[in-house]
Amino acid sequence: MLARALLEAALEKSDEVEEKDMIVKEDDQKSVHVGIIGAPNAGKSSLTNFMVGTKVAAVSRKTNTTTHEVLGVMTKGNTQVCFFDTPGLMLRINGFPGKTDAWMRAENAWGSVNLYDVLIVIFDVHRHLTKPDKRVSRLIAHLGAEEHPKQKRVLCMNKVDLVEDKKDLLKVAKEFGDLPGYKRYFMISSLKGSGVKDLSEFLMEQALASPLVFLVASSLVDYIIHHYYFTAVKRPWDEEATIMSEDNMKNISLEVVREKMLHHIHQEIPYVLEHRLFKWKELRDGSIRIEQHFITQKQSQRKILVGKNGSKIGRIGMEANEELRAIFKRDVHLILLVRVA
Ligand SMILES: Nc1nc2c(ncn2[C@@H]2O[C@H](COP(=O)(O)OP(=O)(O)OP(=O)(O)O)[C@@H](O)[C@H]2O)c(=O)[nH]1
């Protein structure tokens, strides 16, 4: 379902791809950098994927699937919106024992969180209504509820499609509605897409610098702050972000296969599996040959993953192949092998 929604979104955006390919002079280019932060499973990857219209991060029903920072780019006309995931940051907020790799990653991510022009704080509103989610208030407290001089913060209440009585949403809106640092609130469903258009329009507007800020600046300090903000948002496109590097493509290929695997294999197997890219080759006709290996601990796990006469792994491979072809816009020959360690 989700894969189809993503594909449809990708196809729907094919006109925008043409737009993206148009040459926009550097003077006319605008961009805005958006960080997305939230507890595991809040829907950060789904939201990024929905907006960008293609797969940038693995999405699954299991938590902590985002293991590294992923960048997605949405380009419309002369405006580019770059999305940054903030993996591991919640670890820092919740506290964790020892200075692990995860801790280091979280510290690095924390260092950059204030650099985004917009910070989206996202949470699962359905979960919050079922059982108040302390992680949300802890996250807000950690970020500081007061207004940030250079960053616009927005609160996204995600998964509204799961809330049966929409009146319940008002309760949550009331609970978080008075935070001075959050000028905008969005009720969204990253899965169904409701509310996402408004959010995406808001983000696009942030890239448009308004000369009015100079007129309303009432003091020198105010002027400097606004001027800083003005120049910060009026920056040309991030060229690197628009190029899909081979490393990016390799990551995407692993993530798409992993997502399909998680969709088809529901036991503990995904967690004891090793999954690697074994070979990557661009062929003369422009197509890509990708070989990935799954390494299981036991023969019995291998059997489940392969399925009767290879039916499971075959299905995973076919679905992933189709999606990768749509994302890379070229032929893909995906080979999946399952071995026992
Ligand atoms: N019903 C519903 N499900 C959603 C929505 N957004 C995300 N999900 C589901 O919630 C689960 C987690 O979504 P992700 O996008 O992977 O969440 P995440 O915040 O990136 O998770 P981590 O990578 O673990 O930090 C997936 O099964 C999604 O399909 C939504 O708006 N509605």
TrEMBL record:
InterPro entries: G_ERA_dom, GTP-bd, GTPase_Era-like, KH_dom-like_a/b, KH_dom_type_2, KH_sf_prok-type, P-loop_NTPase, Small_GTP-bd
GO molecular-function term, one example from the UniProt record: rRNA binding
Residue numbers spanned by region G1: 38-45
All copies of domain Era-type G, residue ranges: 30-211
Residue segments, region G3: 85-88
Annotated region described as G5, given as residue ranges: 188-190
Region G2, residue ranges: 64-68
Pfam families: KH_2 (PF07650), MMR_HSR1 (PF01926)
Family: Belongs to the TRAFAC class TrmE-Era-EngA-EngB-Septin-like GTPase superfamily. Era GTPase family.
NCBIfam families associated with the record: small_GTP
The name this protein goes by in its record: GTP-binding protein ERG
